[in-house]
Structures are given as structure tokens and as C-alpha cells.
Amino acid sequence: MSEQYQYFVGIDWATESHEVCVLNTEQRVVDRQAVEHSGSGIAQFVQYLEKLSEDDPEHVAIGIEIPRGALVETLVERRFAVYSLNPKQMDRFRDRPRVTGAKDDRRDAFVMADSLRTDLKWFHRVRLDEPLVIRIRELSRTEQDIQQEQVRIGHPWRDLLRRSFPQMVELCPGVDEPWFWALIELAPLPAKADKLTRAKVEKILRSHRIRRLTAEQIVAQVKAPPLLLAPGAAEAAAEHVLRLIPRLRMLHQQGKDVAARIEVVLGQLSVEDESGEHRDA
């Protein structure tokens, strides 16, 4: 299969600039260059490869560790044969020249190209997914990032409350619900619990449609005897707690927005699948 290719391109992917090595079928280095990770940098690289292949991109095989991203998708769209390689397998290929020392991007690009030339069977041909599948995948990553950020902020936020206002945490152990944040804003520390009236609590519960607790239960819980802390400790904790609430709200809303987008795209994907089945029938 590798006999159909005239050039083998190894790309050592990086965030800002990718190191590239181009080999011919006889292992001779045809070119080395750094490709800037930008629209213009990728466009220039594609133009170079098209000129090298004499406008026959199917004669160029390109090896890279990552199977997706702007660079990969652009190359596949331009009909170049793009192959990805498992990083562990790349480690084995990297050891073959028996060159020790720190990571060398230029050497890695050469190893990628040469391994593609001699061991194509270990590479996986990259195929572009349907646009809706790509969107679902990216939205899922975004959703996961939001959830991780919520956990990163939520854990220390709950710890602050446990140290300064533990009776409040018992109302909402996860401390991850909007109604609870509104309640905290009214009474961020025990000294302000007296201002938390039944009417104010009922308003919060109604607006957030919370039925598992009553205003009486909440008021009684919040006004329970507080912990004895060093002077200023509760106030300092309350200030920190209040500063984090806007970030928690923002992440909560972003999570809802992304979840809604996922549902929309899944619906579109389902319609496409049904249409495809009808066409096949």
C-alpha cells in the first residue's frame, strides 16, 4: 500500500508551531520546515504539499499523532492521505534509531515520516466524521470541561461553608443548586441569620420550584447555634463564599446551554439517520 505514495510527511504536532519532515521513497530528506498553527500557516503548508505532489495529493502520505484538529481536517479535506499513530507506538518507533536524550521535535518528525514509509500497517487512516458528529463531540468536551470546573470550584466552596456555617450545608450537601446560592447571599454567615425571614425564604423556594424543604425548616436550620470561631474568621469565609457565587452561576448556565445544544444536535442527527435509512430502503 505504501508503494502508491511518493512522499512521506512526518508532523510533530505542537500548540503554536508544528515541526515537519518530508521524505521520499528512498528515505532522503526532501524538506524540513516549521508550520505555524494559524489559518495562513496551514494554508501555506497545504499549498507547498500540493506543489510538491504536482496537484496529486493522493501520492502524499502524512503521519501525525493526533487524529483531529484544524491541521488534520484541512489536510484530509484537500485529499491528502493522513494517518494517525498511537503515542505508545510512536515511542517504540522513536527508540529504533537508538538515539538517547531529551525530546527532539525535528527527530520526532523524521521518525514519524520514516515509520510511515516502512510500517504503514501500524497507522490508522484518518476519515472525517459527519459535521453533526463533530459538533456533538466538541459539545461533549465542552460539557465535560464545565463539569470539571464546577467540581474544582465547588469543593473548596463547600469546605469554606463547612468550616464557617455547617448548618447551612446540611440543607444542600452538594451546594450546587441555584436556590441555595440565593439563600447564601441573604445569609452568608450565622450573624446574619436573623435577617432570613420566612417570607424571604418562601420567595426563593417558589422562584426555584423547591418543594422538598419548607421555609420553616430552613429558617430553623439556619438559626441553629453557630460554631465558635476566631474573630473575623466567619466574615473572611463569607466574603470568599460570596465572591465565588457568580462563577458558580455562570458555569451552571453554561452547562444548561451546552446540554440544550447537545439535545438539538442529537435531534438533527436522528433525523439525518432516519433519512439515510429511508434512502437505503
Structural class: alpha/beta
Largest sheet: 6 strands, mixed
Measure the end-to-end span. Answer: 35 Å
Helical segment count: 10
The fraction of residues in strands falls at 5-15%
- How confident is the prediction overall: mean pLDDT? 86
Form type: elongated
The CATH architecture of the largest domain can be named as Orthogonal Bundle
Name the helicity range.
Answer: 55-70%
How many strands?
6
Low-confidence stretches: none
The strands making up the biggest β-sheet line up spatially as 3-2-1-4-5-6
Tell me the CATH topology of the largest domain.
Answer: Helix Hairpins
Whole-angstrom Rg: 29 Å
The run of helices and strands is: EEEHEHEHHEHHHHHH
CATH structural class of the largest domain: Mainly Alpha
Count of structural domains: 2
Highlighted features:
281 residues, Nucleotidyltransferase, domain 5, Helix Hairpins, 2 domains
Summarize the structure.
This protein has 281 residues and is of the alpha/beta class. The protein contains 10 helices and 6 strands.
Describe the structure.
This protein is of the alpha/beta class. The protein folds into two domains: 2-128, Nucleotidyltransferase, domain 5 (2-Layer Sandwich), CATH 3.30.420.10; 133-277, Orthogonal Bundle (Helix Hairpins), CATH 1.10.287. The protein is 57% helix and 12% strand. It contains ten helices and six strands. The protein has helices at residues 39-52, 70-77, 87-95, 105-118, 131-164, 166-169, 178-186, 198-208, 215-222, 233-280; strands at residues 7-12, 17-24, 29-36, 60-64, 81-84, 124-125. It has a six-stranded mixed beta sheet with strand order 3-2-1-4-5-6.
